[in-house]
TrEMBL record:
<feature type="region of interest" description="Disordered">
    <location>
        <begin position="297"/>
        <end position="459"/>
    </location>
</feature>
<feature type="region of interest" description="Disordered">
    <location>
        <begin position="628"/>
        <end position="688"/>
    </location>
</feature>
<feature type="compositionally biased region" description="Basic and acidic residues">
    <location>
        <begin position="433"/>
        <end position="446"/>
    </location>
</feature>
<feature type="compositionally biased region" description="Pro residues">
    <location>
        <begin position="420"/>
        <end position="431"/>
    </location>
</feature>
<protein>
    <submittedName>
        <fullName>Uncharacterized protein</fullName>
    </submittedName>
</protein>
Length: 724
């Protein structure tokens, strides 16, 4: 810190602006603060001007005089900024990536003791300002400035000039101290003794309440940064327990966890008895450290670090006696199982009088002689010990059904009331009296899903409600109608007692990677995955959308052919995939794209195509009254018409009749129309602005396969032009 340049009045003025500076520092927005400060400062302390222009109006000054005055004002503003940065900056800048190294350095300094001021430093603080030594230093700085062979000054960097100044200053101040008078020497030695005594008394005192409160406020962020950097250095995961008296004198305890399973579950949530077995003894231990000997309190009277809500978080909440903790945030990409949370200190929930309660603690469940260890997931460093009776239940551990598949359904843990008694045993699910043959794995899956839904009380269409809320947050002329059409298709399936939708899944070939990331992070409908390269995402999404189309809609252009009336002998079965793993994924991908680019021409065109496609699917569902059969690989490739045993089954014949009924009506209508004249084959070209369509035969699907009414409706909707 440089020498003091403010007077007592100026320092009091600047100190009064301290709270506003801290407020602006927390928001990282200083624009209005500096403007207001400069205006108030120059009104209270006008800048001094040269004597030759004191009695001259500023507008009459020469350009050189105006430049000199402006330079003085700029220097004063720089001084004001430096003053606040030096006097009002936070004690712990925990956002710094090298914060752990700073902590180690501070620890080493503390172990070796704080350095006392040297005699030369004390002498400089008392006698340097305005002395002959200061003038000598300034003169040497000017005279000893580096010059070239022609005698011209060489431009120095700030670091070079500062280094040269410190060498000159050190030499001159040492010479001045050696030549100091007896009075000056005596005053310096007395000041050094007072400084040492004051430092020793400060070390013995407890921190002030205001300082402690500020430290507790920074503690969660400090632990978060420290744990992440320790993980980067060692690759280990951490659970940090802390506790002590707060500013109000109340004992508080806290826990912080870094490390999550593939299901987004940290140690506290994975270990069902964490509060009883870990935090309760820790709270009693902290109370003993704070002088409350023998005090043991239930978990309900301790304080924990409540985690700041983070949009995009996944993972089940922990059933406990305190307030529900928001789910942990999405882990950083590329670091599997390394989730972290940013917590904040909370006040104790039990009792507001600040006194400690000491009821008899409830003993932890299980035999105390056993080695109690939580179940470790993949990526954790410790070896799993033999499980005790209080180990986490299978629902909290990763499983092949919930966490192994990227597109598996998300299982949310319900909020359970705290109770020291064991939970009641669940009644076995009713036996299925259906005569259909089922495999053992199918029975186990049905039993598991039924029990899970019964225990959680989840509605089958809960994912549909969440998806609709997210999809309707995106605007677009055709988008809203597309969302309504998709909702109708999905609700049609729910009314047919098919809450899980069809069993098929869309292909992952050419699929944008953001979809897999959305699966991995638990299908969070409130937070969209990051799209760093919008152009690449557009290309990948349109390529995937085109790949999903039936063969009679395929095209070499970004979008499929605008064919929405089913040609004879064809169907939409490859696109009629409903449920949480079907068209929902397409809708979400389009919604993310729309939010990223807004109402761009390409997005408007693509959503119009999506709308008409969904309309065709909805009409087909209404006509057939059921979900059409999805075509096999042989049928999609056109390799023959024999479908094996299905022709001999009643279900197969009925399905073929249902699919053929609307096609027969379309075919009879076309036969009544006059045959058009022979024209060259159709060529459909696309861009983000203009589509050219020549009516005629398309890919051997018959003349007028692209009907005029459909083309007009499509391109009028998208606002594009059609050229013959």
């Amino acid at each position: 810190m440089g020498r003091k340049w403010t007077t007592k009045d100026q320092e009091e003025f600047l100190t009064g602006w301290g709270p506003r500076y801290k407020q602006a520092s927390e928001k990282k927005n200083y624009m209005f603060f500096w403007d207001d400060l400069f205006s108030a400062w120059f009104i209270a302390f006008p800048e001094a001007v040269a004597a030759d222009v004191v009695n001259i109006a500023p507008e009459l000054w020469s350009p050189e005089q105006q430049e000199t005055a402006q330079k003085g004002i700029l220097q004063r503003k720089a001084q004001l900024r430096d003053w606040f940065r030096n006097h009002m900056r936070p004690d712990c800048r925990v956002d710094s990536p090298g914060y752990i190294r700073k902590l180690v350095k501070l620890h080493e300094q503390k172990n070796t003791g704080k350095r006392s001021r040297k005699a030369t430093e004390m002498y400089s603080a008392r006698f340097y300002q305005g002395s002959d030594t200061q003038k000598t230093v300034q003169k040497r700085l000017r005279d000893e400035a580096p010059r070239d062979s022609a005698g011209e000054l060489i431009q120095e960097t700030k670091a070079e000039k500062s280094s040269r100044r410190m060498k000159i200053y050190g030499a001159e101040i040492m010479a001045a101290w050696k030549g100091a008078t007896e009075e000056q020497t005596s005053e310096v030695l007395v000041a050094l003794d007072e400084s040492r005594m004051r430092r020793m008394s400060e070390e013995d005192n407890d921190p002030m309440p205001d300082d402690q409160q500020e430290g507790l406020r920074r503690l969660p962020r400090l632990m978060d940064v420290a744990a992440k950097e320790m993980h980067d250095v060692s690759g280990w995961y951490f659970t940090i327990l802390s506790g002590g008296r707060g500013a109000a004198g109340v004992v508080q305890t806290a826990s912080f966890h870094l490390g999550q399973t593939r299901n987004g579950v940290d140690f506290e949530h994975a270990y069902s008895d964490f509060n009883e077995v870990v935090m309760k003894p820790w709270t009693s231990f902290v109370r003993n450290l704070c002088g409350e000997s023998g005090a043991q309190v239930p978990a309900s009277e301790r304080s924990t670090l409540e985690h700041v809500p983070n949009q995009g978080s996944v993972g089940p909440p922990s059933p406990s006696s305190r307030s529900p903790i928001p789910r942990p945030p999405i882990p950083q990409e590329g670091l599997v199982g390394n989730g972290h949370r940013t917590p904040q200190m909370a006040q104790p929930e039990g009792g507001t009088d600040g006194t400690a309660r000491t009821p008899t603690p409830t003993p932890p469940s299980g035999d105390g002689s056993e080695n109690v260890s939580p179940r470790h997931s993949e990526g954790e460093v410790a070896q799993a010990e033999p499980q005790a009776s209080n180990s986490p239940p299978p629902e909290n551990a990763p499983s092949s059904t919930s966490g192994g598949r990227e597109d598996g359904p998300v299982r949310a843990e319900p909020q359970l009331p705290h109770s020291s008694s064991p939970p009641p045993a669940r009644s076995p699910p009713p036996e299925n009296t259906n005569d259909r043959r089922r495999s053992p794995s199918h029975d186990a899956t049905v039993e598991h899903n039924t029990t899970l839904r019964a225990s959680q009380g989840l509605r089958p269409d809960s994912w549909l409600q969440q998806a609709l809320k997210r999809l309707r947050a995106t605007e677009g002329p055709d988008w809203r109608e597309a969302v309504d059409l998709w909702e109708g298709i999905e609700r049609n399936q729910l009314e047919k007692a098919q809450p899980e939708g069809t069993k098929q899944r869309f292909s992952t070939v050419n699929r944008p990677p953001q979809i897999a990331r959305w699966f991995a992070y638990g299908r969070n409908f409130t937070t969209d995955p990051d799209i760093s390269d919008i152009a690449q995402y557009e290309q990948e999404l349109l390529t995937w959308w085109a790949y999903l189309q039936p063969e009679w809609r395929t095209s070499t252009d970004p979008l499929p052919l605008p064919l929405y009336h089913t040609p004879e002998g064809q169907n939409w079965s490859v696109l009629k995939v409903t449920g949480s793993n079907g068209l929902l994924i397409v809708m979400m991908a389009f919604a993310w794209w729309g939010k990223a680019v807004g109402l761009s021409p390409l997005w408007l065109t693509a959503t119009a195509d999506l709308k008409h496609t969904l309309k065709a699917l909805a009409n087909l569902c209404e006509e057939t009254g059921s979900v059409p059969r999805r075509s096999t690989i042989k049928e999609r490739r056109g390799a023959g018409t024999n479908i094996g045993k299905e022709n001999s089954t009643l279900a197969g014949r009925r399905r073929k009749q249902a699919e053929a009924a609307p096609l027969a009506r379309v075919s009879s209508k076309r036969r009544k129309q006059a045959d058009p004249p022979t024209v060259p084959p159709t060529r459909v070209t696309r861009s983000s602005a203009v589509h050219k369509v020549d009516d005629g035969t398309v890919d051997g699907l018959g003349t007028n396969a692209i009907e005029e009414s459909t083309i007009s409706q499509y391109y009028l909707t998208t606002g594009l032009t059609v050229e013959a």
